[in-house]
Amino acid sequence: MTIRTQTFKLRPSVEDDYDAIAEIWHSSASLPGVGPPIMPTENELRERVDLEFAAGWSVTVAVRENDLIGFVAIKPKEAVLDQLFVRPGSIGAGVGQALLAHSVVAMPKGFTLFTRSGNAKARRFYEKAGLVWLRDDVHPCTGDLIACYGWKVG
């Protein structure tokens, strides 16, 4: 796998980004150990993108040239980082770090997030970034084991 090291920019998402958001979500969550055992289809995730935006998602995308290479979806009112995914070919290029840093700025009083307990790469990423493991839980829809992390000022 080649990691492109060109610079990228963060910007608020627009409706024209929704297809690419679903594609990134699907391709990244489909990597071994990342997503649920029964992965939703890209079309199912695309439908969910519309529902989540209607329910209050605030999404920032990472763009290199004209290509979306990652996104973070937050729910500021609930202080939740809901989704953070990077296109597989761009993992390791600082995109996830930039999107996580954006979340810290966007929710300065703190936030929580959930990841699959078995997603060792995500857990290391969040712990290295200073997030604190809070508890293990069970996903209400899939029954998967999930880990809850938190970030708070001070």
Backbone structural class: alpha+beta
CATH topology: Aminopeptidase
- Strand-residue fraction? 25-35%
Radius of gyration: 15 Å
Mean pLDDT: 90
Please count the beta strands (DSSP E, at least 2 residues each): 7
Strand order of the largest sheet: 1-2-3-4
Shape estimate: globular
Largest sheet: 4 strands, antiparallel
CATH architecture: 3-Layer(aba) Sandwich
Reading the helices and strands in chain order gives: EHHEEEHEHEE
Distance between the termini: 39 Å
> Regarding CATH, which class?
Alpha Beta
- In total, the number of domains comes to 1
Q: Percent of residues in helical segments?
A: 25-40%
Model regions low in confidence, pLDDT < 50 over at least 5 residues: none
Features:
single chain; 154 residues; alpha+beta; Aminopeptidase; 4-stranded antiparallel sheet; 3-stranded antiparallel sheet; 4 helices; globular
